[in-house]
Amino acid sequence: MVPPNIGATVFTITSVDIHPAPPGDNRLLAFATIIVEDVFAVHDLRLIQVSGTAPFVAMPERKVQTRCPACHGKTPAVERYCCKCGAPVPAPGADQRLYACVCHPIAQPCRNYINEAVVAAWERQRRSGGPATQVTQ
Asked: How many CB atoms lie within 10 A of CB 21?
């Protein structure tokens, strides 16, 4: 794997930590953490495989928060009842997002590099049955 040259910046993924997904979800293969240049970590990457396709990396997400009409506390938009007071929370509209990206690559070469590093580490771990952490440098 060759690190991408994005503009004037080149970065290297120095470590990929793979944790197999719990049984039950046929599409989710593993969770991953990548370390960039030994100084920056990205957690909660998900390795997903849809039937008939190659595995791909999905970037970390968080649940979008909404305000409870009764207590004005924050509660995830996917919930039907407030997490603080238990009051009913209006259902989200059809155009409302329920999840938001935490971070994501802007350039396609960067996305490809992350995908290749995580998939390669997962395949090495699967073949060897060895440790979860794979150093890619």
From this structure: 15
From the list 135, 67, 70, 58, the residue with the least C-alpha distance to 101 is: 58
The H or E element that residue 133 is part of is: strand 133-134
User: Quick check: helix, strand or coil at residue 18?
Assistant: strand
pTM of this structure = 0.75
Q: How many angstroms from the chain centroid is the CA of residue 78?
A: 18
For 99-107, the CB contacts below 8 A with 24+ separation are 99/61, 99/62, 99/63, 99/64, 100/61, 100/62, 100/64, 101/59, 101/60, 101/61, 102/44, 102/59, 102/60, 102/61, 102/62, 103/42, 103/59, 103/60, 104/59, 105/59, 107/4, 107/6
As a whole number of angstroms, the distance between CA 131 and CA 93 comes to 44
pLDDT digits (tens, 9 = 90+) for 19-73: 988 888 789 999 999 999 999 999 999 999 998 899 999 999 988 898 999 999 9
In this structure, are residues 74 and 82 in contact, taking their beta carbons and an 8 Å threshold? no
Q: Which of 13-17, 19-23, 116-120, 131-135 shows the lowest mean pLDDT across its residues?
A: 131-135
